[in-house]
Specification:
Elements lengths: L6 H71 L10 E6 L6 H11 L3 E7 L9 E4 L4 H11 L3 E4 L5 H4 L4 E5 L2
Parallel strand pairs: 1-2, 1-5, 3-4
Antiparallel strand pairs: 3-5
Length: 175
């Protein structure tokens, strides 16, 4: 048997239902507006991030390539002061192959250079051979690199001058 609602209960429920419906519609509209506004905002931020990232990555890379080319040209253009027989070379194996440094040291000695030390580099993952030099010995390093057909020449990096002993040039063998 159904009981009719009394007047206070009848008035409360329709308003409550209307409030839920209105709140739900407002929430859906808010989500739609956030999606539209967020997409536009994300696009603007994304464009600015792309420009900033390009400035941070491309510009230094171009500068570092130019700096490397300048250093290589400076090493190649500098005239060596010491003759080959007085230039001391430290030969390091940077490729991990057994006996590679000793073999390279024979080639270096055959070109007329003195060998100061033969051993292993700190890392064995060098992709290419490189020549590094003490300050003031760029000319000797450039000549040495030309003699052994090494393309990468630069100042000491990762090797302390104290570790060189009497060597003027460091030759690290790569893969």
């Amino acid at each position: 048997m159904d009981h009719p609602l009394t007047a206070p209960d009848a008035l409360v429920r329709p308003w409550r239902l209307a409030a839920y419906v209105a709140g739900s519609i407002a929430a859906v509209e808010l989500l739609i507006l956030l999606a539209i506004g967020g997409g536009a905002l994300a696009g603007a931020v994304s464009d600015r991030l792309d420009v900033a990232a390009r400035d941070r990555v491309v510009a230094p890379a171009a500068k570092s390539k130019a700096a490397k080319a300048t250093r290589r040209q400076a090493a190649a253009a500098a005239k060596p002061d010491l003759p080959r027989r007085k230039t001391v070379v430290r030969v390091l194996n940077g490729n991990g192959r057994s006996g590679a440094a000793a073999s390279a040291a024979s080639r270096v000695r055959g070109r007329g250079y003195q060998i100061g030390f033969v051993g292993n580099a700190a890392h064995t993952d060098f992709a290419q051979s490189l020549v590094m030099y003490k300050p003031g010995f760029a000319g000797e390093a450039g000549r040495f690199a030309r003699d052994l057909h090494v393309r990468h020449v630069g100042p000491l990096d990762g090797v302390r001058p104290k570790e060189l002993g009497r060597a003027h040039v460091v030759f690290i063998l790569g893969a």
